[in-house]
């Protein structure tokens, strides 16, 4: 793949993306079990968004992970690192076997994505509210250097609590960063409570719209629709794009969906088998 | 120092297309020349320092050399996590320039004082901390910073301070202290905007028959260890001078070095600000006098210490 030429013309194959998303979920669940690591439900809720990005939208080449013209994908909700690692390994940025080292002593796959260590990871995240300012700086550097790549930042809904998100939102609008796209994984839960009972996010799309973004709501589990919406960036509005993606935390596994215990819980071996069966992966 | 910074930055911007200026909505007209020459590389980031620091890091991660600038507390403690995580963790070559070191903006009150920044910044991995002593050191430090590939913190005073050096510094190096005056009885290691005060203290001491060596110790991290080893070997009394808290600042860094290298000083005095907010109104000169940091007070304390042996 030549990252100098954007492959925007390709048609969305929703069926293939769905199968890919199911496989990604299967890997994430196995990783969570093997590492007994937290944030499984957060990783599952954004699995379709990550699949749309890596299997349709992003103009990237694992053989040239630092290509100056590549699209940037920043997992601003760094606690969903398992989803990112699984996508990057499957795409060939590093060996798929390395996923077995997730959270193990001495490895490169920590619970949050590391800086300057793992091919394909654009930014170290984990502390919320950092990805969008970084992304705005990357987008501006592209403008200054006449490199027309796009920047996608995936935020959690709880992350919208952070003031730095809104500082960056106003900045991006003032700078007319139309190559920047925020996707909010709006699963209605943060770590320990319902999002809208913690800090009032609603009406979230209206807020982003009011901050000068071309914002709209979307089904974050309609992987084909996500792929199409992200691929349309920049969309000609002259504004940065915000996709408020309605999702379900723990999506894809009936006994995890919308149950916030799975923010911290890791599955047993038996639960992995049941989950994979539900995902059609047996 | 402030005007020297803006002027030197404009020149560096002419020479290097990677240089980008980010301002936190201060410096009215200060950057007019830079803006006129490089309008695509100047950004007023507003009163939103966390975002500004993240933007700077994102630019630096993509090959640019951003310089982020505003008043000291707002570009250090206000966005310390962005400095730590976005800049230092990514080893992003951002040059952070703070104006209003120590009590330079004394009259504006403790919200604008900056007597803790060295302490915070020097504890961050990958960060270089430079406190220039006059306008020529500002120019040289900025130039040196933009020529290398690591995060740097440059702590400016304000505008119009006395100039100590006679002309441009051609052999300035990060981490290499500059001897201003030779002496034999006491060594005054000064960092940042206290340099003119240290020079004047040396003149006061001379009147009492005390010969003072004056060193501009502009880089607090990494420390010039050779300079320290030499100073503590040659002088019966070494003093650090800074407009910063004695907790965690330059003097504290030297004290740490003494312990770690098992050097036993004959006499060691740390001049700095106390562990308290300075709440009185008044300008910098008044504040220094109130806190025992003016030249004659430094000279008096050293004279007494040398007499007591």
Blueprint (SSEs and pairs):
The complex is a heterodimer of chains A (282) and B (309).
Chain A: H1 14-35, H2 40-45, H3 47-57, E1 72-75, H4 81-91, H5 131-144, E2 151-156, H6 163-174, E3 180-186, H7 195-198, H8 204-210, E4 214-219, H9 223-231, E5 241-246, H10 269-278
Parallel strand pairs in A: 1-2, 2-3, 3-5, 4-5
Chain B: H1 2-15, E1 19-23, H2 32-37, E2 42-44, H3 49-61, E3 65-71, H4 72-75, H5 80-89, E4 95-99, H6 117-122, E5 128-130, H7 135-146, E6 152-155, E7 178-181, E8 186-190, H8 195-207, E9 212-216, E10 219-221, H9 225-234, E11 237-245, H10 250-261, E12 268-273, H11 284-290, H12 295-308
Parallel strand pairs in B: 1-2, 1-3, 3-4, 4-6, 5-6, 8-9, 8-11, 11-12
Antiparallel strand pairs in B: 5-10, 7-9
Helix pairs in contact in B: 1-7, 3-5, 8-12
Structural overview:
- The complex is a heterodimer of chains A (282) and B (309).
- Chain A has 10 helices and 5 strands, in the order H-H-H-E-H-H-E-H-E-H-H-E-H-E-H.
- Chain A is of the alpha/beta class.
- Chain A has a single domain (14-278), classed as Rossmann fold, CATH 3.40.50.970.
- In chain A, strands 1-2-3-5-4 form a 5-stranded parallel beta sheet, sandwiched between helices.
- In chain A, strand 2, helix 6 (163-174) and strand 3 (180-186) form a beta-alpha-beta unit.
- In chain A, helix 5 packs parallel to helix 6 (163-174).
- Chain A is globular, with a radius of gyration of 17 Å.
- The model of chain A has no long low-confidence stretch (mean pLDDT 96).
- Chain B is an alpha/beta fold.
- Chain B has 2 domains: 2-155, 3-Layer(aba) Sandwich (Rossmann fold), CATH 3.40.50; 178-308, 3-Layer(aba) Sandwich (Rossmann fold), CATH 3.40.50.
- Chain B has helices at 2-15, 32-37, 49-61, 72-75, 80-89, 117-122, 135-146, 195-207, 225-234, 250-261, 284-290, 295-308; strands at 19-23, 42-44, 65-71, 95-99, 128-130, 152-155, 178-181, 186-190, 212-216, 219-221, 237-245, 268-273.
- In chain B, helix 1 (2-15) runs parallel beside helix 7 and helix 8 (195-207) crosses helix 12 (295-308).
- Chains A and B meet through helix 5 and helix 6 of A and helix 3 and helix 5 of B.
């Amino acid at each position: 793949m030549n990252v100098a030429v954007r492959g925007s013309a390709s048609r969305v194959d929703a069926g293939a993306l769905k199968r890919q998303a199911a496989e990604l979920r299967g890997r994430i669940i196995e990783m969570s079990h093997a590492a007994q690591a937290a944030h499984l439900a957060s990783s599952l809720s954004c699995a379709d968004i990550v699949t749309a990005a890596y299997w349709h939208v992003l103009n990237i080449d694992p053989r040239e992970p630092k290509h100056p013209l590549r699209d940037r994908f920043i997992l601003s909700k760094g606690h969903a690192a398992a989803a990112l690692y699984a996508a990057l390994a499957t795409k060939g940025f590093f060996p798929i076997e390395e996923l077995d080292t997730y959270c193990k002593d001495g490895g490169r796959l920590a619970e949050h994505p590391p800086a300057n260590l793992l091919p394909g990871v654009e930014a170290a995240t984990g502390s919320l509210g950092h990805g969008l300012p970084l992304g705005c700086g990357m987008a501006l550097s592209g403008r200054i250097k006449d490199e027309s790549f796009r920047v996608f930042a995936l935020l959690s809904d709880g992350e919208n609590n952070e003031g730095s998100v809104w500082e960056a939102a106003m900045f991006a609008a003032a700078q007319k960063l139309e190559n920047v796209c925020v996707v909010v994984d709006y699963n209605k839960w943060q770590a320990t409570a319902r999002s809208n009972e913690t800090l009032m996010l609603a009406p979230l799309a209206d807020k982003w719209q009011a901050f000068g973004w071309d914002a709209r709501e979307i089904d974050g589990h309609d992987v084909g629709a996500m792929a199409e919406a992200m691929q349309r960036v920049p969309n000609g509005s002259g504004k940065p794009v915000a996709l408020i993606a309605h999702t379900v935390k723990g999506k894809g596994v009936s006994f995890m969906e919308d149950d916030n215990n799975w923010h911290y819980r890791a599955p047993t071996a038996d639960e992995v088998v049941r989950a994979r069966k539900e995902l059609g992966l047996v | 120092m402030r005007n020297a910074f803006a002027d030197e930055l404009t020149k560096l911007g002419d020479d290097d297309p990677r240089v980008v200026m980010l301002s936190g909505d201060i410096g009215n007209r200060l950057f007019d020349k830079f803006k006129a020459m490089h309008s695509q590389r100047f950004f007023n980031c507003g009163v939103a320092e966390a975002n500004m620091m993240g933007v700077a890091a994102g630019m630096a991660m993509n090959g640019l050399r951003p310089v982020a600038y505003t008043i000291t507390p707002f570009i250090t403690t206000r966005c310390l996590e962005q400095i730590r995580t976005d800049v230092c963790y990514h080893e992003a070559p951002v040059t952070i320039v703070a104006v209003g070191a120590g009590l330079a903006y004394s009259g504006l009150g403790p919200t604008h004082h900056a007597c803790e920044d060295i302490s915070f910044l020097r504890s961050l991995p990958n960060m270089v901390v430079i406190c220039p002593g006059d306008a020529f050191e500002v120019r040289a430090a900025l130039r040196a910073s933009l020529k290398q590939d690591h995060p740097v913190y440059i702590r400016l005073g304000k505008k119009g301070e006395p100039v100590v050096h006679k002309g441009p510094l051609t052999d300035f190096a990060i981490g290499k202290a500059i001897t201003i005056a030779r002496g034999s009885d006491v060594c005054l290691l000064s960092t940042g905007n206290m340099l003119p005060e240290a020079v004047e203290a040396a003149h006061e001491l001379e009147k009492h028959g005390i010969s003072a060596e004056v060193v501009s110790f502009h880089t607090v991290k990494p420390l010039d260890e050779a300079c320290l080893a030499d100073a503590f070997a040659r002088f019966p009394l070494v003093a650090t001078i800074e407009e910063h808290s004695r907790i965690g600042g330059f003097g504290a860094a030297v004290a740490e070095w003494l312990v770690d290298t098992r050097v036993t000083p004959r006499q060691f005095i740390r001049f700095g600000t106390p562990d308290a907010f300075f709440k009185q109104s008044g300008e910098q000169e008044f504040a220094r006098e109130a806190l025992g940091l003016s030249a004659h007070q430094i000279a008096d304390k050293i004279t007494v210490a040398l007499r007591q042996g």
